[in-house]
Amino acid sequence: MSVTKILLDESEIPTHWYNVVADMPNPPAPYLGPDGKPVPPEAMAAIFPMPLLEQEMSSERWIKIPDEVREVYRLWRPSPLFRAHRLEAMLGTPAKIYYKYEGVSPAGSHKPNTAIPQAYYNKICGIKRLSTETGAGQWGCSLALAGSMFGLEVRVYMVKISYQQKPYRRSMMQTWGAEVLASPTNLTNAGRQILAQDPDNPGSLGIAISEAVEEAASRADTNYALGSVLNHVLLHQTVIGLETKKQLEKVGDYPDVIFAPCGGGSNVGGMMFPFVADKAAGKNIRLVPVEPTSCPTLTRGHYAYDYGDSVGLTPLMLMYTLGHDFMPPGIHAGGLRYHGDSALVSQLCKEGVLEALAVPQVATFKAGVLFAKAEGIVPAPESCHAACAAIDEALRCKATGESKTILFTLSGHGHFDMGAYDRYLSGELEDYDYPDEAIRAALDHLPKVG
Amino acid sequence: MSVTKILLDESEIPTHWYNVVADMPNPPAPYLGPDGKPVPPEAMAAIFPMPLLEQEMSSERWIKIPDEVREVYRLWRPSPLFRAHRLEAMLGTPAKIYYKYEGVSPAGSHKPNTAIPQAYYNKICGIKRLSTETGAGQWGCSLALAGSMFGLEVRVYMVKISYQQKPYRRSMMQTWGAEVLASPTNLTNAGRQILAQDPDNPGSLGIAISEAVEEAASRADTNYALGSVLNHVLLHQTVIGLETKKQLEKVGDYPDVIFAPCGGGSNVGGMMFPFVADKAAGKNIRLVPVEPTSCPTLTRGHYAYDYGDSVGLTPLMLMYTLGHDFMPPGIHAGGLRYHGDSALVSQLCKEGVLEALAVPQVATFKAGVLFAKAEGIVPAPESCHAACAAIDEALRCKATGESKTILFTLSGHGHFDMGAYDRYLSGELEDYDYPDEAIRAALDHLPKVG
Predict the structure, then answer these.
(1) I want to staple A188 with a disulfide (CB 3.0 to 4.6 A). Which of A68, A211, B78, B428 is the partner?
(2) Of the candidates A147, A172, A379, which has an alpha carbon nearest to the alpha carbon of residue B413?
């Protein structure tokens, strides 16, 4: 049997992040203000440090990873690339299946890849505190970890209902020294307004973002950090794809198709952007973001200018969107419940470089259980989306006899999601779908530009 | 900075397990029946396959690891050895600290190192089903994983109170396809007897063992599997120490002292036994099992023949024991709540090869939080015991200026133990201690031999 885990030495951690802007067919559409004019980086300097804003706007192909960031990456990177021998055998497919496992980070997902550099750049710019929001706690954990690595205070506004119902990720953030508050709080105007109207408000990601941004904007020692969507976030995640390319080279292979789960786009950017240049150069490779049918942004959304958050605080971004007030159902892949998508991922979909796919919830858990029985690792619900698409592709290969090379991102483990598996195993999970009219109606809610 | 993660290629997974019996100062004391006569292996053949019973009694120094077992080990082994640069810096110690991280297994601890070969040997002996018991679920998960790898049915008797209060490890076992029952059940005589007296009995590890053993003894297609204490279990775990020796060789280092958490002894045997021969050959190395002060088997127990289980089903083993009916308090390091200890570990302690240490619960969580802030990984409560001892030793080195090389086993992650961290962080945890009279009283409960 050929190798199972393709490892790299820590000296092989990439030295530079890859900026896909340099290889896109067209330059990215600018962020706009409500007046229709491009938003300059300085307009966001109250909440982000300049090095991150420069990365946000950069078109340089390679951006150096600071040594201090690579030092912390060494705690878990390079992450392993697995050849899924046992899954292939279980499926009886002639296809080769590889998965890149990001669950080896201390926080259990790919999110620390950007939390660490974000904390670092804030630190060197003299910032003492970071504020952020979290739903179930995946991103909050990653930023708490990053804060502990660079000696920054971290305050996390955690959606109150998750704070109460999912205490374990809260405990993990606190273990790393972060302060975790149940949002809405009475510490911000945004929170106080909500509580005045409804003292028992269970919170939402939109409210928590408003609180975290308000705090960052109003305190000189404090900045805000975001875990997906923005260009600099996707840039930091490209260590995933860059390592994967090296690992596949070691075994003399190259993917015919890549799947990654897609919510805000940081998994997709992280794994797929380093392959975009190859595709532009003529490589025959399919790059497939996988989203839930219950939140079908790329597959059924509109390509239009919209807000990145649900309350309209951010600049307008040209992206696929279901409308910034779209409220997806409470599926267990919480990281994929986002009304919009990264502007870069959206534009590459629009231009046909990426081709999105939507899969229903129950099928993703079926795939997750199959994967766990074959390969051992219990995947996060988000990761189950990519596993599901990869398994379907492998079964198509079985039908056609093709021995394609399939690659997917196993973005995290499911250790904090066993309640979701429980519901799947006891037959309580359901799928959601939307009538076309509901999708079309979202058009009425898109903001007017200019 | 020198290397952080010392990795081995999967071709460097050990080819043989190491049997410490070959290098012990004296041969191990035999297992005895209540009549005082040695128990022959065949007496246990109703519940264990012969290859495991042969290993249990073997004095061969090296025992070949089957290729089929090494194939499955490749899913996560060799596990990484970390140099704890960040922890050293945080402590300001001149000592070098290394930790071997076993939490990378799909089940999250070192337990699959033995679950996998146990499932394999049962499979090749024609067994179709395995039964076992589990408390919080760590061992049950490992055997469920092993069953899924070799196509064996697994039934886990899970202590009812844990089944109800800690559902997530139950879900994990079910995800891997195991059947999980809340013990006591009405499927066994043992369970029925308990339920007849007390229908609301919350269960105990002793009852669950009785149920699992009864099932295995009464069905020809079913065997029993145990996760610690026995010689063959410790044998399988020696992959930990064997890999660690190779990893330290790569960086030209050798430990002055090794710490491992000690409950039934499988961590201690796994890491330390491969160093026992070096010590016998004159190497100056301290080998220190670390147990909780609330269950001070090695540090305050009696060295005597006692039962391995709480109800008296097993042969009598010469070991340190607090008496087989000793009920330790409900500390969070559930894996260390065992009244006795491996006979091999006990004998090596008695002979001065190992020197045991006990640490109190609150100090272990303090060490766990410090470790998480420095190194990222949140340790299991059991692992916190070894981390605590290693940190104390490093601080002693700081006081004396010695640059010792300290090694410890980080046997698992704490992802399913965040409730315990929560209690620590909110100041609710407490320590337990025993008056000498209570320890002496246990003598009255030791079984009469012969």
Answers:
(1) A211
(2) A172
